[in-house]
From TrEMBL, chains A, B:
InterPro entries in the cross-refs: Homeodomain-like_sf, HTH-type_TetR-like_transc_reg, HTH_TetR, NicS_C, Tet_transcr_reg_TetR-rel_C_sf
Residue ranges the UniProt entry marks as DNA-binding: 41-60
One annotated GO biological process: regulation of DNA-templated transcription
One Pfam family this sequence matches: TetR_C_29
Entry protein name: TetR/AcrR family transcriptional regulator
Keywords: DNA-binding
Statement: the UniProt record of this protein carries the keyword Lipoprotein: no
Highest taxon of source: Bacteria
Originating organism: Agromyces albus
Amino acid sequence: MTDQLSEVPDEGVTRRAARSQEDILEVATAEFAANGYAGARVDEIAARTRTTKRMIYYYFGSKEALYLTVLERVYAQIRRVERGIQIDELSPTEALRKLAEATYDHHTTHEMFIQLVSIENIHRAEHLQQSETILRENATAITLLEQVIERGVREGIFRDDVDALDVHMMISAYACFHVANRHTFAAIFKRDMLDPALQPSHRRLIGDMIVATMADRRNRRTVP
Amino acid sequence: MTDQLSEVPDEGVTRRAARSQEDILEVATAEFAANGYAGARVDEIAARTRTTKRMIYYYFGSKEALYLTVLERVYAQIRRVERGIQIDELSPTEALRKLAEATYDHHTTHEMFIQLVSIENIHRAEHLQQSETILRENATAITLLEQVIERGVREGIFRDDVDALDVHMMISAYACFHVANRHTFAAIFKRDMLDPALQPSHRRLIGDMIVATMADRRNRRTVP
DNA sequence: GTCTATATATCGATAGAC
DNA sequence: GTCTATCGATATATAGAC
């Protein structure tokens, strides 16, 4: 890799710069997630990279712009996960469970994403609202869920008074809480919600919860 | 904040001093909730009270000690709400719904509590762990839930593979998410989860969700 | 693009009079 | 208990050489 780069000086410099920026973003993500926006230190980020503080400002302009780039990066990541979910051959019930489990799997393995979302909410999403990319792209996660629910309602197996956003809210709430409130929950109740021994049953429970709620046909407004 | 959070002042402290401390705590709660621990400014808290910054340090010693007092105060508040819940004459199903709705009602009307819990989780609950009062008192919320579930299992109407902490987790997750992730959710999906027009249906849904999950008797391990 | 050194601002905390 | 004034530490951001 390094040899190839030195053979092509022009690309080498750019590629090296891109790698340096990636390096900064990686460290910055951890720093912001761990300490919040105001608590994060640019000095600390610089110290943990191969580059210097001067380069952070050279590449990103400001602490806020760096934070925004970090935010866009983790939202792009979950978008990729969501796009990869396949539910074509599944029944509405099975599809719902699979979507819930996929969200649970993503959130429980991406603690920094959840922390950054919490931080962003403390700041009333004012940074997120500056990102047209996130606002435009991340809302599309809901379309798959809409199709599943519509099919389930049409087949008469789902209640019809809960829409896709409500279901997404229930799934996200459960999966987020496991990670976001892990520490206060553990401190008070002495149970680590991310304990690997608990994950199979918690993964089953999120599916049970969503399926049981949606399959409760007593709540239908119209007869199928 | 409209709730009565004030404690009875010590005999040695004048009424004016106690009122001054209450004034500081009121403003500090809002300041920490709105900006996080590192983002909160002691100067700003002082400016919005009738007292001065010097007095904040005189009464509370440090920014961190002030924050800890704020934390204990909001946790004491939810404890009072939890203690006031009456479910004596209700069936296990009705009791479960009432507990879920009470949590929903508390969280949706105490945004600052939820924000402070989020902030505390960003800091890995390191302040909360210093408060013996919170750790000792707030875990008792679970006993009422334990009794309800035990009764429901005994009567053969609830599944028996989900314990009280899991139910508490599901209820808290739903109710917390509404408040904690309100801003990112609204930014991306253009729906304010705290819109008063949505509250009746969301309040019904949390009850439906918990009852449907627990009443799913296919998940029983033992025959009642 | 990369470095060292530094400007500029702000914040938590305190001194000391009354 | 209460005030004004201010310290000392630390933060973001930048200057300017190479």
